[in-house]
Design a protein that fits this description.
With 293 residues, this protein is α+β, with helices and mostly antiparallel strands. The chain is built from six helices and 14 strands. α3 packs antiparallel against α4 and α5 packs across α6.
Length: 293
């Protein structure tokens, strides 16, 4: 892959953010956005365990979904407090994503502020928590609601790889999904370019996200995240401007996902293999157009 480090800025005006990052759909790390939030120092394991430790949550392991697994199907369920105890003891390849902790602890909404000076259209009912043990992985995907994402890391570090949606053919996007057929596990050490040769030509951004840093990911950006340390993050989501992007969001949420799940139920093995076949064909076509083969 052709890798570029994500820019870091300590502070930025709304005009500069819109001109340099929002409109051109370019990622950036805002290093000081969360520094004035009470959450910056207040949020920790004990705090969350006290607030919502008894809530049962879905947990996900590092194994990629098989042919018969529906979209977002959890691998197991456990109490949030028990999970937090587990990941603090050492490397645990279990993570939680899209956990709306704010449904159970509404008062902590006052611990942070939506950055409405930078973007509009925030989905204020859906700030989401992401938690992972050291070694856990969020495999390469893009978010199905196609929101702009302000992803703030709390506790621990996370290795991040992101790509513009235009790179979809080069990373083997599977049809009717937001997933890649290729594996990016430990991508910083090696990639399977023998079986997925187009990966050599994909243009990506990389970084290690630290405590208190906020990664802005424009709508539709692919991302693969590996937890270096046990930690958690919060994503604030904002719908992109315009009617067409919103219709595309509705298609992804209610059309494409439903179609994918239907075929998983009806023809799991055939659909599993067909998606990967189409991903390879599209990658070959993209490489031919770019003169790589």
């Amino acid at each position: 892959m052709q890798l570029t480090s994500i820019e870091r800025v300590p502070d930025i005006s709304p005009q500069a953010f819109r001109q340099n990052y929002l409109l051109p759909k370019k990622p950036v790390i805002l290093t000081e956005l969360s520094s004035q939030w009470p959450a910056h120092n207040k949020w920790n394991w004990d705090y969350f365990k006290q607030l919502v430790g008894d809530v049962r949550v879905g947990v996900y392991n590092n194994t990629r979904a098989g042919a018969k697994v529906l979209v977002n199907g959890a691998d197991d369920y456990m109490k949030f407090g028990d999970y937090l105890d587990l990941i603090q003891k050492g490397p645990v390849e279990l993570r939680i994503f899209l956990f709306n902790i704010f449904n159970y602890a509404k008062d902590i909404r006052s611990d942070f502020t939506f950055p409405e000076h930078l973007a509009k259209g925030f989905l204020k009912r859906f700030p989401m928590m992401f938690v992972g043990g050291s070694g856990s992985i969020a495999h390469m995907h893009y978010d199905i609601d196609l929101s702009h994402i302000f992803h703030t890391q709390f506790i621990g570090r996370k290795r991040v790889l992101i790509l513009d949606n235009a790179q979809s053919p080069m990373i083997y996007k599977m049809p009717a999904t937001v997933e890649s057929a290729a594996s990016f596990v430990n991508w910083h050490q090696s990639l399977d370019t023998d079986n997925f040769p187009a990966l050599k030509y994909a243009q990506a951004y990389e970084t290690i996200l630290e405590h208190g840093e906020t990664l802005f990911m424009p709508a539709g950006y692919w991302h693969h995240m590996q937890y270096i340390d046990s930690g958690f993050a919060m994503s604030l989501r904002a719908l992109p401007e315009g009617i067409a992007p919103k219709f595309n969001t509705l298609y992804h949420l209610f059309g494409m996902r439903g179609f994918n799940n239907m075929l998983i139920k009806l023809f799991p093995e055939w659909w599993y293999n067909y998606k990967r076949q189409i991903a390879r064909r599209n990658a070959d076509v993209a490489m031919q157009k770019l003169g790589f083969i």
